[in-house]
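User: My instructor asked us to take a sequence, write out its structure as tokens, and then describe one feature of it. I'm not sure where to start. Here is the sequence I was given:
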Amino acid sequence: MKTEELYADIIHLPHHVSKLHPQMSMWNRAAQFAPFAALTGYEDAIRDTAQENEVSYNTRNDDEE
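Assistant: Let's start with the prediction itself. The structure tokens for your sequence are:
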């Protein structure tokens, strides 16, 4: 069965607009879907680890020369 057939009974119904609650502004609506930092401090930890690895790598290469 096609999707159109599955929803044929509701597809052309009018869009509901609340009489009690004002519509949300486009700005506020978009903010709901904005990305957020779920793992605060993660980027700092990655940066610190990269720096430690670089120092370790450089120290090892200097010892070999």
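For the description part of your assignment, you could build on this observation: The chain has a mean pLDDT of 88. Try explaining in your own words what that tells you about the chain.
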